[in-house]
Design goal:
This protein is of the alpha/beta class and about 675 residues long. The protein folds into four domains: about 130 residues, 3-Layer(aba) Sandwich (Rossmann fold); about 170 residues, P-loop containing nucleotide triphosphate hydrolases (Rossmann fold), CATH 3.40.50.300; about 220 residues, Aminopeptidase, CATH 3.40.630.30; about 80 residues, no CATH class. The chain is built from 25 helices and 23 strands. An eight-stranded mixed sheet has the order 9-10-11-8-12-13-7-16, covered by helices on one side.
Length: about 675
């Protein structure tokens, strides 16, 4: 049996903590130790990196880690580095001698003390206590074994079945960190090469994320030629291709292995599903980057629609440490990686009218662990990129406010908001002129820099950065009811605006529109996480704010047609329609001559090329009117792709499965004739 990982909390000043760490690790191989600190000791015998570099160590393994938290403790970095420590290895955490004002750190320290009192493998040493060379080094024999667990073997067989079984039955492989799912992918890839398969594609957010796959495949294929991101054995090749390049390529594959799928935009995952018939999607459920629970919930819906015969397997057994590993349990509790929403039973007899709304402060949250876990569990379920650092934000940031709705004492909805605005005139002017950028203050900065609202900096904003409703209660207007309470609270606090910025989708835009928020901007760049453009919507709360919001919406409306032709040429047609319906335009600008030309195209044989400009003017107005929704989704997409976004006829024909130009133009005539009625 593997030995327990060890953990020591050293509470004292920085020099004492470093000396104590050196003493405790005296018998360890210095090459197997890494030191995380914002201060590099002169002539240090250990490799030293900053806390921010912890994520770059994923895929590596260490005998021991020293984490210097005497000045700050980055929760994401802590969660990342804990998963790199081998069985029998050690984590040393340097904490300040006196308790700080940080509620996050106070809670962390309290949980550490509790675990130390309950687990022999964890201990706390105060400055002034005697420090001995107490820690036993990692057994080299134990750390070098590569024997698949029972769960890994089952996972490998499931991966092989994706190749040998029916097409269009992808596998979702999930696990907590340290369960060896990436190793299982590597071992399965090697077995497929041995069976004669020739093309195994690995994709992930980066090549470094896939290193474990290649190292285990290489171990199982000792005669393979190993180049960076490409492993060749006989006629078979295992190679890494980044997600975007893989989507654009014409490469054929026996199977595509997608590792850390939760960190890849869902839009890209959908494209991979459409492009390849044999795929495995691997995702970490609890990890440094936040939980994968929300991703799993959302991606299952996509799989149900596109490949309803998909399969799932969850790896339970740890590979890097024992199943009863106290350090893992500590990290789960301290970072709330295992937080879950309230149970089903607690919703019995639910009645929306009996829900209560209130604001909860950080001190109440830190003193009520049950409430904190329920709140964070809802956020985790709703936002698959919720990170441990979000917990720090809730407890320590003065500009953050938290609101909840509860029923029978159980939280059913929550929201996290941030205060923005009231910028100094000189600063606002510099932002407007493109000379300054700020951390935070997203709403006023966007209005100043992108929509050209020169007075936007002086207003007071409350931005909703997270909102979540219990998954069992969604679709019952709880979210709208919750937002109404948030608007009342913001008005009472004399805010000018409440706003939200989110990954655009037809459903989410529809929700905020139902809450009477107004669209003022669509971000030009794709979001790294969702793969979508960020939509910014505002709700003015004062008369002056209403004037500014109206101006911003008008500016957005005026620019929309041009944006579709250039910046948003590849925006999905259904999203174009949803946004356009919120931007009121009419056909009053069309002259009698324009109408004559439009009808000549629709009902006669006037050529598309000679009346394209007029058709564009008309459809730019129609797309924002109810009449456009009478068209079939196919005809809506045709009008948007061909006329508004100006894609080539051949490209439109291919995308909409038309036989060629003649059918494209014929279908467009039919669509225009419907719009003219």
């Amino acid at each position: 049996m593997m030995t327990q990982r060890q953990c020591v909390f050293l509470k004292g000043d920085i020099d004492w903590g470093r000396n104590a760490a050196h003493t405790l690790l005296a018998s360890f191989d210095k090459q197997g130790v890494i030191y995380l600190s914002d201060y590099v000791e002169p002539d240090s015998v250990y490799q030293t990196i900053s806390q921010k570099q912890a994520q770059k160590q994923l895929g590596k393994e260490f005998d021991a880690v020293v984490f210097d938290a005497t000045t700050s403790l980055n929760a994401d970095s802590f969660g990342a580095i804990v998963g790199t420590i081998k069985a029998g290895g050690a984590l040393l955490v340097l904490l300040p001698k006196t308790m700080t004002e940080s509620l996050w750190l106070q809670r962390f320290s309290h949980i550490a003390d509790m675990f130390c009192s309950q687990n022999k493998s964890m201990q706390s040493i105060q400055q002034g206590d005697e420090v001995h060379s107490l820690l036993a080094p990692v057994s080299k024999l134990e750390s070098e074994k590569i024997i698949p667990t029972t769960d890994q073997t089952t996972a490998i067989n499931a991966i092989l079945h994706v190749v040998h079984g029916h097409r269009r039955r992808p596998l979702v492989l999930s696990a907590d960190r340290g369960r060896g799912k990436s190793a299982a992918l590597g071992m399965a890839a090697a077995e497929l090469i041995k069976q004669g398969k020739q093309s195994i594609i690995v994709t992930a957010p980066s090549l470094s994320c896939a290193e474990t796959i290649f190292s285990h495949a290489c171990y199982a294929l000792p005669d393979a030629t190993d180049a960076k991101g490409k492993l060749s054995s006989g006629n078979g090749v295992i190679q890494f291709i980044a997600p975007d390049l893989l989507i654009e390529s014409d490469i054929k594959a026996d199977i595509v292995l997608v590792d850390e799928a939760a960190a890849i935009p869902v839009q890209m995952l959908e494209q991979l599903l459409a492009k390849f018939s044999r795929l495995v999607f691997s995702s970490t459920i609890h990890g440094y980057e936040g939980t994968g629970k929300g991703f799993i919930v959302r991606f299952k819906q996509t799989l149900d629609e596109l490949t309803p015969s998909w399969k799932e397997f969850h790896i339970e057994q740890p590979v890097r440490w024992r199943e009863d590993d106290a350090l893992e349990k500590f990290s789960f509790d301290a970072l709330l990686l295992n937080a879950t929403p309230p149970t089903v039973e607690s919703m019995t007899g639910f009645e929306p009218s009996e829900c209560q709304f209130e604001q909860v402060g950080p001190r109440r949250l830190v003193s009520d662990e049950t409430m904190l876990r329920a709140l964070f569990g809802l956020l985790v379920q709703a936002h698959y990129r919720t990170r441990p650092s979000d917990l720090m934000m809730l407890l320590d940031r003065d500009d953050i406010s938290v609101y909840i709705m509860h029923f029978n004492g159980q939280i059913i909805a929550c929201s996290v908001c941030v205060e923005e605005g009231e910028l100094a005139p000189e600063l606002a002017d510099a932002i407007y002129c493109g000379e300054r950028r700020l951390n935070g203050h997203l709403l006023p900065q966007s209005l100043l820099a992108h929509t050209g609202m020169v007075d936007a900096g002086k207003y007071r904003y409350r931005r909703i950065i997270r909102i979540a409703v219990h998954p069992l209660l969604q679709g019952q207007t709880i979210g709208q009811q919750f937002v109404r309470h948030l608007l009342i609270s913001a008005t009472q606090d004399k805010k000018d605006f409440m706003g939200a910025s989110f990954a655009s989708s037809t459903e989410v835009i529809g929700f905020w529109h139902q809450c009477t928020f107004m669209p003022v901007r669509l971000g030009l760049q794709h979001d790294d996480v969702s793969g979508s453009h960020a939509m910014l919507m505002l709700k003015p709360l004062t008369q002056q704010a209403e004037m500014l919001a109206s101006q911003a919406v008008s500016r957005f409306t005026e620019q929309w047609s041009s944006l579709l032709q250039h910046e948003f040429q590849y925006l999905k047609p259904e999203l174009v329609t949803r946004i356009s319906q919120l931007l009121a335009r009419d056909t009053g600008l069309l002259s009698d001559s324009d109408w004559h030309e439009i009808k000549a195209f629709a009902y006669r044989q006037r050529g598309y090329d000679v009346c394209h400009y007029t058709l564009r003017q008309a459809i730019s107005a129609w797309v924002s009117q109810p009449v456009f929704l009478k068209l079939s989704s196919q005809h809506q997409a045709l009008c948007i792709l061909l006329v508004l976004q100006q894609h080539a006829v051949s490209e439109v024909a291919k995308r909409l499965s038309y036989r060629g130009k003649a059918e494209v133009i014929s279908e467009l005539r039919e669509a225009i004739s419907c719009l003219c009625q």
